[in-house]
C-alpha cells in the first residue's frame, strides 16, 4: 500500500475508533445495537433455530396437518400453573397376519388440565387388495365407551381427525347428549350452528355431566384406550400390514404457539426477521442515498434548477402515500421486493430538505469558493467537499429510515395479506391473525408476538439512529 | 463603603460543577467600579470575564454558581439576594447588560419596540404609550430611526441591532452598564461606531461602565481603568494609561506588545502556549507555564496582591521584593 | 400585511399546481390498473351473454363472433373505454378537480345513492370524529408534557418521555389497536371490539350518544396512546432548543419573571415549528386512518378506501384520493399561513434553508 494509502487508512481507523468511543457514550444507541445484533443472529441463524422446510411449506396446508391448531406456546404452563397436554405421537406397525380380525389399541394417559387439541390417526396399509369395516372405539377411564367411527376401509392412506370428521363429531355429540343438561341439548338442537362451536376432541376427555359440552365439567384424568378394530369379510390374501400413526396434538406447542392452520409461529417469526431486516435496510439505504444525492445536487445547482427540483420533491411528497401503496399493492400483487422498490419511490423525499440546507451552508463556505476559483469541476466539489461532510450523517438517516420501512411493509402486508406471493412476513402473520379473529378468540400469542417483533425491530433502529444523529449531525456542530 | 464606589467585588469565586470536575472559572477576584467610572475587563477567551459579569447580576447558568465572596453594589451584597429580589430591584433597573452578539439577543418573533417596551413597563410602571415614546427617544439617542420600533430584529443589520440593544439597556437609566464583548462579530468600522457610542452615552448619562473584551486595543480608547484577568484570576489592574504604557505583569506586557501599532516599527510578539484547564489549573501562579520570567516560587505559591501605586495592583512575584 | 397575502397567494398557487399534478398521476395509475380489470370483467360478461343468446337463437360461428364484438363495443362505449387513454385521463382529472366526483361503479351510500360525493361525505364525519378528536387530544397532552419535560430537563419525567416517545413511535397503531381489543373487549369485556354503534343502534338520542361514546373509547384511546409520546418529545426538543437561545438569557437579564420568559418569549419563538408539527400531525393522522379504521371496523374514509379497493370501484378511489390530497394541501397552505403569522422572518421574504 502506498504511503498515502497507508496514512489514509490510519486516519480512517482513528476516526472510526473515535466514533465508536462517542457511540458507546449513548446507552440508548448501545441498546439498539444489541437488539439489532440479536435480530441479525436470528435472521442469519434461522435454519439452526427452526426448520427451514417448515418455512418453505408455510402455505402448504397438508404439511401442518398433524400440528395442533390455534394453541398457545408450550411455556404457558409456567405462567398459568395449569398442565397442558404435550404433542404426543405413537407409531405402531401392525405386521400382516392371516386373521379375519385385526385389532390394536393406543393408550393415552391424560393427566392434564387441558386435553389434547385433536386426536389424529393416520393408517397406511401395505396394499389395497382388501376390504374391511373399521371401528374406532374410545374406552374412557370412567368406563364409558364411545364408538367413535364405523366405516368401510379399503386400504391406502386413511386420515382420521377427531376435530373435522363428520361421523366422529356426530358420534361424540350423540354420546354426550346422554349426559348433558337437556335444556342445553334442546337449545343446540334448535340452533344447529352452535354445534360448530363445540370442541369435539376436548369433549372426549371431559368428565360427563351437565355443562360438559362447553367444557365446564373439567377433564377426566386417567388412561384412555383408543382401540381400532378391523373386521374383514374374508381373510385377505395376502394379508395386509398396517403402519399406524396416532397423534395427540398438544394443548400447547412450541416457543410461540400455533395459528389457526396449525403453523408453528416460531418458524414464521424467526424466518420473518430475515425479510424484515432485508426490506428495512434495503429500502432505507436506497431511499436515503437517492434523497441525499438529490438534496446535494439541488443545493449545489441553485437558481431555477434548485427551485424546479424542490417543486418536484414537494409534489411527490404531497402524494398520499399509503392509499396509493395500497392500491398498487392490491392490483400488482407484488413480491416484497417490488414493495420495497415502491417504498423507495415514495421514500426518497424524506431527507431532501435537511440535506439541502446543510449542503447550502457548505456551499457558502470560503473553501468551496476557493475550490471553484481554482477550477474544480462541480462533480469534484460535490464529491470531495460536500459529500464527505454529509456522508456520516447519511448513516444516521439510514438508521432512522429503517423503522418507517418496516412499519409500512408490515401495514401493507397486514391489510392485504399478500398470500402465496412470497414468504410470510410478520405483517402477513398478523393479517392472518386478524382474518381469523384472533383477538376475540383469545389467541393472544398470535397477535402479541409478531407485533412485538415489529415494534422491537423498529425501536432498535430508532435508538441507533438517534444516537448516530446526535453524534453525526453537522447542524449540531455549527 | 465610600460614595465614590458603586460596585465592589470582593474575593468572588464562581465555580462550575461539571461531570469532568469542578471548573474554577472565577477564583478569588476583587476589583471596584466607581460611580461614573469606565472599567475595562480584559483577557483571553475563557479567563472568566463573562462569568464575572453574569455573577454580578446573578445569572450564572447551571451547573455554575457563586461559591464565595461578596458583590457589594451601592451598599447591598448582591450574593445574598434571592433571584426574585435581583429581578425586581437590580436587573436592568440598576445594572443592565449588553450581550455579545446581539444578533440573537433579540427575540426574532417580536418587534424591537415590543421588547424595549416590555422592560420599561415592567420596571418603570409607565403605560405602554409612554414606554413607546421612551423607546423612540432612546433609539434616537443611539443614532437610529425611531420608527424602528415597528421592525423585527432580522430586518436590522448587525450594527443596528447592537445599537438597538444598547438603547434597550438604557431604558431604566441604570447606574451600571456591563458591555460583554459588544463588538465581536461586527466589522471594524461598525466596531468603532459602537465603542464611540458607548463612550458618549457613558459620559452623557454619567453611568458606570464595565467593558468586557478580549481585544485590548479596544479598551485603550474609552476606559479609565483596566482589570486584566487570566485563568480565573486577576493578573494586574490599574489606570489605563499606566497599564498601556508601563504594564508590570508579564501577561499584561505580552498582551500590550501583541497589539500591532501603526507607527511603531517594533515587531509584534505573542504569548506562547494556551490558557490552562480550569479544572486542574497549574500550581502556584497560573501564568507560570507561559511566563518568560518564571521563578521557582511562581511554581509553588500563588502571588499576593501587590500595590504599585494609587489604584494600581499587580499579582506577580516579580514585584514582591519591594 | 401585504407581504403576507402575496406569500399566501404564492403558496396557494403552488398547492393548486401540486393538486393538479397529483390528480393526473393518480388518474393515470388507476386508469392503467383498473382498465385491465374492467376489460377482463367485460369480457366475462360478454362471454356469458353471448353463450345464452347463441343458445337461444342458434347462431353460427360468424354470427357469434359478430355478436361478441358488438356487445363488447357497447360495453366499452358505456364505460368510456373506447376513447383514447390520454383523453380519459384528462377528462377524469378535470372532472374531479371541479368537484364532480361522479358515480360509483358498485358502492352505495347508506341512503342508497351511487353518488361518490354522497358516499365520501358520509364517511368524513366519522373519520373526523375519531382522528381529529384523537389528534387534538394527543397534541394537547403532548404539548403539556413536552413543556413540562423541557422545563425540567434531565429529570425522571423528561427521560421517561424520551423513552416512551421512542417506543410509541415504532408501535404500529393498528397493532396496538388489536392488543387493546384483546385486553378490553375480550379479556375484560368492558368495551366493544369495533364498529361505531351497536347493532341495532339505540333510537333514543341520549342512549345513541352514549353508545357512540362507548364505541369511540377504544379506538380513541389507541390513537392517543400511540401519538402523544412523539408529540411530547418533539415539543420538548423544540422548546429546549429555544431555551438555549441568547434572547432568553437577555430576557432574564432584563429582569423578566420566569413565567413571562417562558410564555412570552420561549413559547412565542418556539410556536412556529411547534404549530407546524402539530398540523402535520393532524395530517398524518389521516393517513393512519386506513389501517386503524380497518382494525376497528370504523366507517370512516379509511375503511371506505379499503372497501373501494376490494370492490375495484375506481370512481370512489379517485374521489377519495382527491379528497385526501385536497385536505392535505389545504392544511399545508394553512400551516404556511399560520407559520407566516407567527414567524415574521418568513413573511418578509426570508425563506429558511436556502439563503
Which features characterize this protein?
heterotrimer, A: 478 residues, alpha+beta, MetI-like fold, Jelly Rolls, four-stranded antiparallel beta sheet, elongated, B: 322 residues, Rossmann fold, 10 helices
Q: Specify the number of helices of chain B.
A: 10
Looking across the biggest beta sheet of chain A, what order are the strands in?
1-8-3-6
Count of beta strands of chain B: 12
CATH fold-type name of the largest domain in chain A: MetI-like fold
Main β sheet profile of chain A: 4 strands, antiparallel
The count of domains of chain B is: 2
Oligomeric state of the chains in view: heterotrimer
N→C terminal distance of chain A = 36 Å
> What is the count of distinct domains of chain A?
2
Q: Averaged pLDDT of chain A, please?
A: 86
**pLDDT average of chain B, as an integer?**
85
Which structural class do the helices and strands of chain B define? alpha/beta
Q: Return the CATH architecture of the largest domain in chain B.
A: 3-Layer(aba) Sandwich
| Terminus-to-terminus distance of chain B | 29 Å
Largest interface: A-C, 47 and 52 residues
Structure, explained:
The complex is a heterotrimer of chains A (about 475), B (about 325) and C (about 350). By secondary structure, chain A is an alpha+beta fold. The longest helix of chain A has about 40 residues, at about 380-415. Chain A has helices at about 5-25, 25-45, 45-50, 50-55, 75-80, 165-175, 180-190, 200-205, 265-300, 305-315, 320-330, 335-345, 350-365, 365-375, 380-415, 425-435, 445-470, 475; strands at about 90-95, 100-110, 120-125, 130-140, 145-155, 155-160, 220-230, 240-250. Chain A has 2 domains: about 15-60 and about 265-475, Orthogonal Bundle (MetI-like fold), CATH 1.10.3720.10; about 80-250, Jelly Rolls, CATH 2.60.120. With about 325 residues, chain B is α/β, with parallel strands linked by helices. Chain B folds into 2 domains: about 5-80 and about 175-320, Rossmann fold (3-Layer(aba) Sandwich), CATH 3.40.50; about 105-170, no CATH class. In chain B, about 30% of the residues lie in helices and about 25% in strands. The model of chain B has no long low-confidence stretch (mean pLDDT about 85). Chain C starts with a helix and ends in an 8-residue tail after the last helix. Chain C has 12 helices and no strands. By secondary structure, chain C is mainly α. In chain C, helix 6 packs across helix 9. Classes of the chains: A alpha+beta (about 475), B alpha/beta (about 325), C mainly alpha (about 350). Chains A and C meet through helix 10, helix 11, helix 13, helix 15 and helix 16 of A and helix 1, helix 5, helix 6, helix 9 and helix 10 of C.
